[in-house]
Amino acid sequence: MRIQYGALPYRIDATGTLEILLITTRRTRRWVIPKGWPIKGLKPEKSAAREAYEEAGVSGSVGKRPIGRFTYAKSLNDDGRVIPCEVRVFPLKVKRQSITWLEAATRDTRWLAPIEALQLVDEPGLRALIAEFSGMVFTGAAAAE
Fold this sequence. Notes:
Blueprint: E1 2-12, E2 18-24, E3 31-32, E4 35-36, H1 44-56, E5 58-62, E6 68-75, E7 82-97, E8 109-112, H2 114-120, H3 124-139
Parallel strand pairs: 1-7
Antiparallel strand pairs: 1-2, 1-4, 2-3, 2-8, 5-7, 6-7
Helix pairs in contact: 2-3
């Protein structure tokens, strides 16, 4: 099982409503969160934050501890080979979203209410993580503060 680090970008709007940022994958256009391989020299949470900036153009306060993990089958290339990956997910309270960023031309981003995000995400483990995180934020039990 290979390890990746991911960020769950979120914000609380002016009305106090939680919003989650999802992005599309480049090839299959599935809705996911920013994630990637460990970056040499960076702590796991900083790797997750860097992926969020490169893949979604967002930056902010990243939590030092993961809020959860999920597994998925990563397709390595067009030859159909897949490897199992575990994604350790860190909360990222977004403070800034760039107009342009490294992968802007190859991905879509969308801010969504948690219930809408759950409807778009295919991976059961990621859906469970979003549902749990949404409850934790509103009870004050977690976040990147």
